């Protein structure tokens, strides 16, 4: 039964403090784990000193490469459309979202040319790559941008 006399703190939550300066055998004697001389060995010294702006600039990570300021549209391949849509069906951002082919329609949709399409589709409200538009029109589909 749980009572006040048998309560104890969770193991690992209480830690005994370091007993500094208690002789050479304690491994924390003499200099008490602070090394030899210098600013950090004295009392009141903090661990990190900012040594001017140049040092700070060199320490900060730099952005590498090119980051476009424009949002990337969600991409769908023609092969995925052929597997999900039936003949003559409308392909729009709303129908693509409803069939879980895209996560979000916020940044628009672009249809790419990977795969084959055999059914005629009506594409509306989507950007279409040149090769994908050729495949869709060859299968008898139409594109309204």
Name of the CATH architecture of the domain at 74-144: Ribosomal Protein L15, Chain: K, domain 2
How many individual β-strands?
A: 6
CATH topology of the domain at 74-144: Ribosomal Protein L15, Chain: K, domain 2
Order of helices and strands: HEHEHEEEHE
Please work out how many helical segments DSSP would assign: 4
| pLDDT averaged over residues | 89
Approximately what portion of the residues adopt beta-strand conformation?
A: 5-15%
**Structural class, from helix and strand content?**
alpha/beta
Q: Summarize the amount of helix as a percent range.
A: 10-25%
- CATH top level of the domain at 74-144 is Alpha Beta
Span from first to last CA?
Answer: 74 Å
Parts with pLDDT < 50 across at least 5 consecutive residues: none
Strand order of the largest sheet: 1-3-5
Molecular shape = elongated
Main β-sheet description: 3 strands, parallel
Supply Rg.
33 Å
If you had to describe this structure to a student in words, what would you say it looks like?
There is one protein chain. With 145 residues, the chain is α/β, with parallel strands linked by helices. Helices cover 20% and strands 12% of the residues. It has helices at 53-59, 78-84, 93-98, 130-138; strands spanning 74-77, 90-91, 109-112, 122-124, 127-128, 142-144. The strands form 2 sheets. A 3-stranded parallel sheet has the order 1-3-5. Strands 2-4-6 form a 3-stranded parallel sheet. The radius of gyration is 33 Å and the shape is elongated.
């Amino acid at each position: 039964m749980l009572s006040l006399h048998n309560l104890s703190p969770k193991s690992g939550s209480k830690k005994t403090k370091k007993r500094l300066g208690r002789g050479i055998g304690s491994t924390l004697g003499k200099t008490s784990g602070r090394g030899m001389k210098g600013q950090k060995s004295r009392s009141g010294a903090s661990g990190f000193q900012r040594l001017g702006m140049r040092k700070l600039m060199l320490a900060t990570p730099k952005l590498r490469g090119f980051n476009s300021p424009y949002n990337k549209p969600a991409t769908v391949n023609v092969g995925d459309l052929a597997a999900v849509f039936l003949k003559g069906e409308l392909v729009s951002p709303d129908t693509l979202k409803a069939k879980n082919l895209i996560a979000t329609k916020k940044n628009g949709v672009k249809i790419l040319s990977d795969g084959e399409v055999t059914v005629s589709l009506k594409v509306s409200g989507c950007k279409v790559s040149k090769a994908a538009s050729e495949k869709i029109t060859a299968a008898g589909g139409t594109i309204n941008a």
